[in-house]
Design brief:
Elements: E1 2-4, H1 7-19, E2 24-29, H2 35-47, E3 50-55, H3 75-85, E4 89-91, H4 95-99, H5 118-121, H6 125-140, E5 144-148, H7 152-164, E6 170-174, H8 194-199, H9 202-215, H10 220-234, E7 238-246, E8 260-268, E9 271-277
Helix pairs in contact: 6-7, 9-10
Length: 278
């Protein structure tokens, strides 16, 4: 697997692939790769002839007092995992390459969808995500880009701006990859201590029960309050939200008989865990 660090190098490789008539897939990541990321790569290989993975810890999506400085950076190990999974190219730029010496002044913002749930508790987060993913899509111009449903709101934000901006890339969402006990795989799971790791699957179990209860007539507000208390009782220190939203449009309230999505975010030790189920 080839590793490049500049946009020009990546574009030159992609141009050669295009000249050979090959279909290209893109898997954007922030590194610290786990089986969820590698599933994205393997899925991309099923649809595309060549797969680019990116590793870039994006400063613009971290807020004040968040974990940008301590976010795990394991490029050597990540590159080996990508190579073993069949990736063809790793794009690993630095901040200056991605944003220029002045840091860049343009941002992409998705009003409404980007302001609720994660956007409410992490102001500016989705502006950072939307901006960097827009840049990656335009830098590589793949046929497909692959994202995990674990970050379900993020996936919806990306789909929306890609459609609004007429970016000619098909955005594919891939089902959340879980540990045997149900915990959604995440790079931030590495922050969990042994005792916390035993508590963490409560998040998945709780929102799964919320979904089941809502579908048989439970009230959304009451279920959200019940779920938050369940998590606190289990040992979570703080619950940002547990909400039931319309599955096709997260800005709408859930409607019985239509697709739903239960989304949650809660703190456990040093980790802020997010998850969702339909």
């Amino acid at each position: 697997m080839q590793i490049v660090r500049t946009i020009a190098e990546m574009r030159a490789v992609v141009a050669d692939w295009r000249g050979a008539g090959l279909k290209v897939g893109l898997v954007p990541t922030m590194g610290a790769l786990h089986e969820g990321h590698l599933t994205l790569v393997r899925t991309a290989l099923e649809k595309c002839d060549r797969v680019i993975a990116t590793i870039f810890v994006n400063p613009k999506q971290f807020g004040v007092n968040e974990d940008f400085g301590t976010y795990p950076r394991t490029e050597k190990e990540d590159a080996a995992k990508l190579d073993n999974a069949g990736g063809h190219l790793l794009f690993a730029p630095n901040v200056d390459e991605m944003y220029g010496k002045d840091g860049g002044v343009t941002k992409v913002s998705v009003a409404g969808l980007g302001d609720i749930l994660e956007g409410k508790f992490r102001p500016g987060f989705f502006d950072g995500v939307a901006t960097v993913v827009t840049k990656l899509l335009l830098q590589a111009l793949p046929d497909y880009a692959f994202f995990g449903e674990k970050d379900y709101q993020q996936l919806n934000v990306i789909k929306r701006f890609a459609a609004d901006l007429n970016i000619p890339v098909i955005i594919e969402g891939i089902a959340t990859v879980r540990e045997p006990d149900g915990l959604a795989m995440s790079s931030r799971n590495a922050y969990l201590l042994d005792e916390e790791r035993g508590i963490a699957p409560t998040l998945y179990r709780t929102i799964s029960e919320v979904s089941e209860r809502f579908k048989v007539g439970g009230k959304a507000e009451a279920l959200s309050k019940w779920a938050a208390q369940q998590l606190l009782d289990a040992g979570f220190q703080k619950v940002d939200y547990v909400e039931i939203r319309h599955g096709d449009d997260l800005t709408r309230e859930a409607v019985k008989g239509e697709p739903i999505r239960v989304l949650a975010a809660a703190f456990l030790g040093k980790a802020r865990l997010i998850d969702n189920v339909d």
